[in-house]
Amino acid sequence: MMTIAQRVSFELVPVDASASGFADAHSTAALLAETIQGIAGVDRSRLLVFGGWESASRGAGATMQLVGERLGILDQFQGVDQLSVQGDGSFEVLERIEAGRHQVSVCAGPPALFGWATGNLPEARNNPQVGMANMRTVMPALQKAKSVPLPSGGLHFLSASPPKQQRQTRVVKDLSAEQVAQEIAGWIGK
Amino acid sequence: MSGSILCLAHVSEAGDALPKASYEVLGTALKLTKQLNAKLTIGLIGADVTAASGTVANAGAERILAVTGPDFATAHYASDVAAAEAICRSAGAELVLAPATSRFMRVLAGVAHRLNGCVDTHVTALEAVNGELQAMRWHYRQRIEAVIRRDTRPWIVLLESGCNAPWTGAIGAAKVEEIAVTLPEAAKRTVVTGVRAPKSDAQTIRPDADLLFVAGAGWTKKQADGKPHIDQAETLILDFLRASGASLGGSKSLVDQTGESQAVLGFMTHLNQVGQTGSTPRHPKGLSTCCHGEEPHVVGWRFINERRAVNLDPNCGWARGKADVLYVADAFEVLAKLNALLAQRSQTNFEAVAQGA
Ligand SMILES: Cc1cc2nc3c(=O)[nH]c(=O)nc-3n(C[C@H](O)[C@H](O)[C@H](O)COP(=O)(O)OP(=O)(O)OC[C@H]3O[C@@H](n4cnc5c(N)ncnc54)[C@H](O)[C@@H]3O)c2cc1C
Predict the structure, then answer these.
(1) Single pTM value for the model
(2) Which of A18-22, B200-204, B253-257 has the lowest mean pLDDT?
(3) Cβ-based neighbours of A163, under 8 Å, separated by 6 or more
(4) Residues B113 and B251 in one domain
């Protein structure tokens, strides 16, 4: 958070709850939607909701969509790499689809929800003034964060473990490039 | 327990069948239908499902439901959520199985919410154990494998492709019950205008390829002569992809170079990245070259059956234990020879065909 605070100015609305990858997406989404609805002065008809698409830590594949449904947002996009606002206030969205392609859509305008992929923009630059301004509000906001236990939502884990896949690797050291190529060609052709 | 199962699918982009993964889902649905003594319904979404429904006409479903029409031609949240909701309500199933296509990944969580149900994605297997449904799914992006069950019904489960045997059967004429869905104006604010794909000779991601070729950052590093050889690396890799039909994956270190103004492989983008923050593609075989990282070998290869690696470093700790074979060799030299062999092979095949004709 300290990294982001140096780069863009924002208001932080923290909730102290589990961010574990095992938390139920339905409970998480309910809490997020309720929190968004509780932000004073948010105009729901102009709301743009952004979140990570399949984030590395969670990857539930469902949380954003559930937040959108709870907020009544019917224009939802996932795996978004690009968003360009047009002259008339509509925006063009590029979403990742199969085979390394993008689906292109034009949405009339807010409200909308975006599960963001990687995009192609560089990270915003550090700006110490932005950092200072943010720090004045971030710390008090963190202190006020309410703590919420997330219900299991009827989800039961029978087991969870990292996969134990250990292969017997044959290490081939003394073949010429030609011989290696021949082996690989034979293997590919099988 | 699960008295009724719905197998949900959308028509393929070509419009004449279902996406390949749908037949794998149907295979699983049929297995569970038998194990649980349940009834199977198939639900289809698309502009026109006539051809696609024929491909599942003989699967043994009690009912085949469909939402059709021009509004349902393209993948789009507001229309797909309405169509899938209508089919689910009509089927009244406790368990809904669907393929994890981009179209369904976008929308089925929303459907679960509307049905007061629940949803799980990244599921690789679904079993009835003593009459109780258990799903195996990945958490932390393919790092942790868990077995779960859910109390809530309906339970919508998106199954990953390549994990279950597909159902196959003769094409027939299906009796399809059409469900009318009229979209409100609010559902028409987004219009899908098309698909943007790299030019066909630059198309390096091929989900149906037999082989995944993973390139690591080593391809852009200084070589024995103290210099990098980016141009040569580009030519060797592209020639190999052309000759072998392989799909191209890249390590994060390599794809990130694009954004850091280092010398880069021109055709490598973030879409190629494999690993925890990239994709975990499914192919029968994988060949990694110039990769040292854990991610390409461990997570990026998670669903690759046969794996081989080429690295100059005999101690490449990630290939050991993860690859079946590690060739300690110079990838530049190996690929040059390999391309020559593949070219020779296709020439021989061409001559054999020409002589046979
Ligand atoms: C939050 C986070 C998420 C990440 N997610 C991902 C992810 O999704 N995917 C991913 O890939 N990484 C990911 N990483 C990065 C990962 O940890 C590694 O840094 C990265 O994968 C290493 O890439 P590499 O193997 O291409 O490069 P390097 O580690 O630089 O390895 C290069 C290899 O090339 C070999 N080599 C050089 N020249 C030749 C030659 N002529 N012939 C043969 N071999 C040669 C060298 O011996 C070396 O082993 C992530 C990191 C973080 C912090």
Answers:
(1) 0.90
(2) B200-204
(3) B145, B302
(4) no
Contact B287, B211 (CB under 8 A): yes
| CA distances to A182, A185, B97 from A170, in Å | 16, 17, 40
* 8 Å CB contact between A151 and A87: no
B300 close to A159: Cβ distance less than 8 angstroms: no
Q: What is the ipTM of this complex?
A: 0.94
Helix (H, G, I), strand (E, B) or coil at B60: coil
Mean pLDDT of the B194-220 span: 90
Give residues 321 to 340 of B whose Cβ lies within 8 Å of A: 321-330, 333-338, 340
Residue A178 CA neighbour count, 13 Å, CB half = 0
Tell me: do B170 and B229 sit in the same domain: no
- How far does A41 lie from chain B, in Å, by closest CA? 24
CATH code, domain carrying B12 = 3.40.50.620
pLDDT in tens, A30-80: 999 999 999 999 999 999 999 999 877 778 899 999 999 999 999 999 999
Residue B278 CA, closest ligand 1 atom number: 8
Nearest to B339 by CA among B241, B259, B262: B241
Q: Is A79 in contact with B102 (Cβ distance < 8 A)?
A: yes
Whether residues B8 and B145 fall in one domain: yes
Residues B168 and B252 in one domain: no
| B231 & B184 share domain | no
Q: Are B238 and B269 contained in the same domain?
A: yes
Residue B100: closest CA among B155, B27, B19: B19
B130 and B258 share a domain?
no
Distance CA(B52)–CA(B46), nearest Å, equals 9
Q: Domain of residue B68: give its range.
A: 4-188
Domain count along chain B = 2
The minimum CA-CA distance between B357 and chain A, rounded to whole Å, is 23
The dihedrals phi and psi of A96, each to the nearest 5 degrees, come to -70, 130
- Asked if residue B339 belongs to a domain, the reply is yes
- Specify whether B161 is located in the same domain as B245: no
